[in-house]
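Data availability (excerpt). The following record was deposited with the supplementary files.
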Amino acid sequence: RRSSLKMTNLRQNIRILSFMKKFQYFALFGVCGIILVVQISLCLSKYFQEPSYISSFIASQGNAEFPEITFCKQGGAYKEEVLQKYGFLSNDHYASTKNHTWQAANISSQDLFEKSTFNADELISSVYMRAIRADEDGTTGFRPKPGEQSDEAQWTTQYHRGFGRCHSLYPGKKIKKLGIYYMTIYGAEDVKMYLHYQGQFLDLSGRMGVKVYRNYTIEMQATWSSLQMLSENVKSVHKGFKCNNRMEYNACIYQKLDQYIRKGTSTGCTVPYMPNNTKICETQADRDAAFKIHYSRITNQAGDCPNPCNFLLMTLGGQNRAERTDDKFKVMLYFQSKTMINEESLLYTPLSLFAEIGGYVGLMMGFSIFHIAELISSVIERKIRSYEKKLEHEIEIRDTMSSRFDTVSKISH
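Predicted structure:
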């Protein structure tokens, strides 16, 4: 009887321990499963918030963005003598906010605009670029001609109601590769000078230009840092800076203006101070409509174009000024040889999301890629065994039929 009681107690202890063994698996699995679901939801939430960070590094001038320099006529953007020749009393009678006639007798509207505004070589007499390194011929000094395209300088015409035609200078591939120590610029007209990212003259960022007058020499140190933000094509921005790089900013503004102005006028015409001014408005109603649309959209007031993702933070410091007597101005711009580039990157990429979720799954459930491979292998193995059993059955049937056929043949003989 004592032995039977002892055996009963032992069986009961075994059942309890077996239950505890199974229960602890279920309990741990449940707790870990809840934690895993919470952590996965947090990972997904963080991923869709698209956090980013800014990394900074120093690059040589040749491997970084160089500022474009735009020159605009300062104080009277249109040539008074030309306008007066064709019947205009002053600039205000040609392109002011109240009087914008744009037409005159014996000359086309396009020619009138071209003749009454300044070419690059009328604003800038000469440009001298001193390179940091010499080219293959040992040359370090270059003199590109104002307004002429070359591997030393690229010139772009900008259009503006208040300035008429401005002219942007950007170093050509040859000079940019060598690096620029300084530029010396001579001019015969008072100008306003802007330094900005290439193709962003119309962007309001840093639009305070430097006024340069004849009979003065100005020496300045140009320093800048480059910012490269992520486009909204890469991340959907819920807050903060929103930008897009699908089109150059100036080109976008001009294109949108052209579309809206032509659509808003009865004859599909436009204002003269646009790149595509082949059809300038003639009637007063069209001129007023075209002027109003241009005036209300030229600085992107309606948000027609996205902010540019890449831009420069410019600083012009250390200005030294001196008088001169040759009725010209002289500007000496000194450029930094190294630039700080600030680049925005995604902090949490799809790979980071996959790695973090995978880590939690491995930690909480003990699963890994190899477990998935083993699971697939076990399924395939079961299928192979099923086919093998069917094959053995077919072989057995074939052998049985063959044996019966042999027996019947012997009896018949």
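Summary of structural features: The longest strand covers residues 310-323.
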